Amino acid sequence: MARDVERKPTSFDVAKLAGVSRSAVSRAFTPGGRISPQTKEKVTRAASELGYRVNSLARGLQQDHSGIVGLVASRLDTPLRSSQVARLSELLIREGFKPMLITAERPDHVGTLIESLLGYNVAGMIFTSDTPPPDLIKDCARFGLPVVLINRPGNSGWGDRVVADNLTGGSMAAQLLIDCGATRLGCLMPRRETFSVSGRAQAFVDYATERGHPVEVLLADDQGYADARAGIAKADADVLHRIDGLFCSTDLMALGALDALRIDRGIKVPEQMQVLGFDNIEQAGWGSYDLSTISQDIDAQAATVVRLLIERMAGDASSNKLEQEPLTAILRGTTRHAR
Amino acid sequence: MARDVERKPTSFDVAKLAGVSRSAVSRAFTPGGRISPQTKEKVTRAASELGYRVNSLARGLQQDHSGIVGLVASRLDTPLRSSQVARLSELLIREGFKPMLITAERPDHVGTLIESLLGYNVAGMIFTSDTPPPDLIKDCARFGLPVVLINRPGNSGWGDRVVADNLTGGSMAAQLLIDCGATRLGCLMPRRETFSVSGRAQAFVDYATERGHPVEVLLADDQGYADARAGIAKADADVLHRIDGLFCSTDLMALGALDALRIDRGIKVPEQMQVLGFDNIEQAGWGSYDLSTISQDIDAQAATVVRLLIERMAGDASSNKLEQEPLTAILRGTTRHAR
DNA sequence: TTGAAAGCGCTAACAA
DNA sequence: TTGTTAGCGCTTTCAA
Fold first, then answer.
1. In chain B, fewer beta carbons within 10 Å around the N or the C end?
2. How many angstroms separate the Cα of A168 from the Cα of each of A141, A181, A205, A326, B189?
3. What is the CATH number of domain A11-54?
4. Nearest residue (Cα to C1') for C9?
5. Structure confidence at residue B135 as a pLDDT band (50, 70, 90)
6. Which of A260, A282, A286 sits opposite B259 (nearest CB)?
7. Per-residue pLDDT reduced to its tens digit, B182-233
């Protein structure tokens, strides 16, 4: 096969073919550009004949943004994260932006990576998981670059935040288990603290304790299915048998806990122990789990994020915003609620 | 909060502060640039003092590519797809590229979307799910733009392909079920044909039929968990009871089928029916499913994709390549293999 | 509404 | 090794 490479046609080529100036070409491709229908028609025809496309790099160099939005996410292969990124990406694209994806597994490199986004004149940045390094945030602030943080703490000093209402969520979870007749509560959480996960777990513990239900805290090494399963599989038997209502700080952990309880420990759910998760990932609804959970509305979350971004790009200069997304309880088969 | 916006420092600013020329600045930021350690030091110091970063837009305008790689994927919130994208993104970034993510749910828009990538002088494109529109492929070919297709048919005329060895995979699946003692086979596949899914299902049917095991084909409305579950839940009882070994063309479908069999139809797996999936998504290994499956090595796949891309960018002008990725059988609890 | 000209920030070819 | 110069392809004043 021949791999002859043609030069990409430029606005100059189009202008020549259409018999107009390069400015005319530019205007033809600028929404709302002041150009007569006839010239626009000529340009469009010439352009499609040559296979011309506006060079977004050159355009972005000229204007102040390139239409690219940085999307920073770790653990993309996790159910919750992947649906967040999927929704965000769809919405961004629908609004005419192009998401540039930075998946950052090793925190050491992250800084440099994210920094490189600035070189693309991004229109804004979205952080779903990692907290941006302080230096970077400082730079974003310097250049007035819109930043939206999802489920992150608000100590960066710059950037709007969209967070699940973890305080309410944790309390909801506790009240729910109590309403379902659980009296001796447990809470499974990862050893390493994380804004949202620790927040809701703490709220759960506080709320339950206040209501006279002390909480046994169970720790897992990390937030994955396997971590949670191992955590429960190795948990002290006495502690486990003391609990009749277990809140897991994410669905993924709840699923691991469920399998550990049923398979590894022979504990019947919900008969001997009720289990409640958080997030409402797709797998929570699968038949073998049928997990009761507190649902985050990912669609709504994504919509809020993109709206904030657009408002900022439109020049909204008010101080950092905080949007709390509402939560809903989804009662399924791992709790003994009155149906 | 003050939202004063500074101008971004340019190489000019850095040059002035460092007392050198703009080319020196450029060279200082070009790997392998011919520059003395002293000047580089001066430049670096000045740059970090000003918070300078190379403008990739301008750089990309000058050189022939922007370092951006287009990554086209649909159904990103699906386990297999999300891990593919996660690995690809990681590898691309490690190689110094920036993935631009196009998630295309509605095929009508896709063309325009993907086209817009060309405007960013992308260094290459990766298609994980959708087949690129023919016009677009033609343009990629015209400009010599590297394209890699994952699990796509090879009828586009341009682009290297990385595919699971579906033919072998389907045969492996059939042989495996037969080896495990299944005699009356079934195959669950989506109604709508897809390159990989239909390919392996067809291979399964062909192989089994040749060996004297006719196959009952069961159809689901689509490839999701729910589609598969509904498909089995509504399947004809006679047909279902005639089958003792069921191959599902993806793990996601297999999990839906498993839940339907056990929960909706009261059929014991693997006692009454053995079940085998394909892909080895994370959930297949979860305790409640413990699904036997044929594994695609996603890491290896991603590595191959990126390698091909890099070879092409380095000027490899050989004709379209086809890389078959090997498959491994993972025997878990849904088959009655000799342990 | 149109075209000419300047310039976005950078790199690369050339000359010193 | 360094600086000078000429673009990369586009948008955007500014005049006409």
1. C
2. 31, 20, 12, 9, 43
3. 1.10.260.40
4. B58
5. confident
6. A286
7. 999 999 999 999 999 999 999 999 999 999 999 999 999 999 999 999 999 9
**Residue B284 DSSP code:** G
B54-89, pLDDT tens digit by residue? Answer: 999 999 999 878 999 999 999 999 999 999 999 999
With 0.85 as the threshold, say if the pTM is over it: yes
Domain B166-297+329-338, what architecture? 3-Layer(aba) Sandwich (3.40)
Nucleotides of D under 7 A from a protein CB: 1-5, 7-13
Residue A339's pLDDT is what? 53
Nearest CA to A80 among A189, A164, A168?
A164
Place of tokens 């996660």: B86
Which chain B residue has the Cα nearest residue A284?
B283
Cβ–Cβ below 8 Å for A120 and B144: no
CATH: 3.30.70.1130, 3.40.50.2300, 3.20.20.70, 3.30.70.120. Which one for B68-158? 3.40.50.2300
Query: Can you say whether the dihedral through the CA atoms of A196, A202, A205, A208 is positive or negative?
Result: negative
- Strand D lies under 7 A from the Cβ of residue B3: no
A55 touches strand D (CB under 7 A): yes
Chain A residues in contact with B288 by the CB 8 A cut-off are 258-259, 262-263, 288-289
With cut-offs at 50, 70 and 90, classify the pLDDT of residue A283: very high
Residues 54-93 of B with CB under 7 A from strand D: 58, 61-62
SS3 state of residue B274? strand
- Cis bond leading into A37, ω under 30°? no
Task: Give the Å distances, CA to CA, from A329 to A202, A273, A276, A308, B119.
Answer: 18, 18, 10, 26, 45
